[in-house]
Amino acid sequence: MDEQIKIVGRCGSTQALKALIRKVASVSATVLITGESGTGKELIAQSIHSLSPRANGPLVPVNCAAIPKDLLESELFGHRRGAFSGAIADRMGRFELANGGTLFLDEIGDMSLDMQAKLLRVLQERVVDPIGASRPIKIDVRVVAATHRDLEAECAAGRFREDLYYRLNVVPVKAPPLRDRREDIKELVDHFARMFAAPGEKSVTLGASLHAAMMAYQWPGNIRELSNLMNRFSALYAGQQLDAQSVSREMLPRGLYEALQNSVVPTLTLVTEATEQFLKEQTAPAEFNALQNIYSDEPNVVAGSVEEIILIAQGRRDFPDEGVPLKAHLADMERKLILNALSHAGGNISRTAQLLHLQRTTLIQKMNKLREKGLHDSAELFGEMETEPPNNTSTSIA
């Protein structure tokens, strides 16, 4: 039975939603699906229809917000030839087309008051009056409605009829926002990555930093926003593993970019400290001191991302046969940490030192060494760096 429910995810709220869909599907009562835009209300309606005794009948969707007010009556109830200018033939309405099946009225909260009164009569009498017809037509239709609006508030404001609201809200179904089902994000990412992968191409995958940022992001556009983002990634970075370095800022929603910036620095700080502690425990003091001098006479070009090296260090990637340049990678890791911390602190040296658990003078020495050796990629942060007074915590660098 569950294969007919196309909702992806296994967290508690998703499982509860699936259980409610199975119960609702078996009865003929009218259903009102509420939830924010992008939460998958149409998918819920499709699942209810697919599991219902009406599954062999049609499922007819109508977006009440997308059809002009003057045309909605004809769309829903139909018209007869000559009923108005342009009516050159009889036309069946969506209610008649859904006979024996389910009519899905999406964005019902955007329906005008006069149309609400006509819809109420249809739900009460189970007949429709096509425009220009001389007699009503009986219908056998189950109605499933959906809206992103708070209909109780709309009723209080006089924009939605209370009697229609109670007629629709026989069985309420709430579509949870994505921020309330964060445990489903990885499964949704994998699902959309497979869906949008080009023929013959591998699906995109997410590195630890990008996944952590997605878990922290609020997703105002919900599942629709996540779907669109994975479509974008699949089009631009086909088959790649994506991390903080491989996706440009312009390709990310602002809030997700900020979450990514916030997740990278703490993660790399912990890994750097763990790596240094491991080296200190496994090497003689003289050898460890030599490793601490990570800047060679010439800047190193590091192959592979910092995140990939972290995964190797954690045993989550196979150690490459060709080995890795330890000194170069430690230098690259420290450089990226300082850059990300500076960006997070808005260029404030004292705050950056706090983020990195360093003395302010130590940070300035490291930044000067980076500038001297050319181990930087941000002239804005390093090129015109000016020292600030030791006790001034508000001065920023240009």
Provide an overview of this structure.
The termini are far apart. The chain has helices at residues 12-25, 41-51, 69-77, 94-97, 113-125, 151-156, 162-168, 185-196, 208-216, 222-236, 254-282, 285-292, 306-313, 326-344, 349-355, 360-373, 379-382, and strands spanning 31-34, 59-63, 78-79, 91-92, 102-106, 127-128, 137-138, 142-147, 171-174, 205-206, 241-242. It is an alpha/beta fold. Helix content is 47%, strand content 9%. It is elongated and about 90 Å long. The protein folds into two domains: 2-176, Rossmann fold; 182-382, Orthogonal Bundle (Helicase, Ruva Protein, domain 3), CATH 1.10.8.60. The strands form four sheets. A five-stranded parallel sheet has the order 2-5-8-1-9. A two-stranded antiparallel sheet has the order 3-4. The protein has a two-stranded antiparallel ribbon with strand order 6-7. The model is unreliable at 265-284, 286-304, 375-381 and 383-398 (pLDDT under 50). It contains 17 helices and eleven strands. Helix 15 (349-355) packs across helix 16 (360-373).
